[in-house]
Amino acid sequence: MPDLPLVADECTRDGDCTSKLHGFCSYGSCKYGCVVDDECGSDAACFCGPAIGVCIPAGCHSNADCPPDFPCTAFQAPGFATPDALTCQSAADDCVTDAQCNSLNPRVSCKVQQDHRICYQDTVG
Predict the structure, then answer these.
(1) Are residues 46 and 10 in the same domain?
(2) Both 47 and 72 in a single domain?
(3) Pick from 73, 32, 25, 74: nearest CA to 52
(4) Which residues, in sequence order, are CB contacts of 51 under 8 Å at separation 6+?
(5) Residue 103 is part of which domain span?
(6) What does the pLDDT look like over 81-103, one tens digit per residue?
């Protein structure tokens, strides 16, 4: 059965989503996952998820793609809860992990803004 509430009428079960590999029905809409980077294209990577991976933009695929001492890591864009891209760390980064933001506020986290990571407080809409 699809996740509820239904917001589309494209599918009612995973078996309806067959136009690509790893199809599943989410809220009535077909989504497609991945298990290896090759399924995502050259400028993306397969990021592991609880059931299936998802393709995310990737400026790097491994530490070898980055300058020395600046590893390839996932980041979260401001306002989003899950990592949505991979990029090399930068000398301009203010943080690399949420813990480095030294805040007890759960809405403060280390996220990429433009070209480097900052401690960002997510606003409540």
Answers:
(1) no
(2) yes
(3) 32
(4) 24, 33
(5) 40-125
(6) 556 688 889 899 998 888 888 88
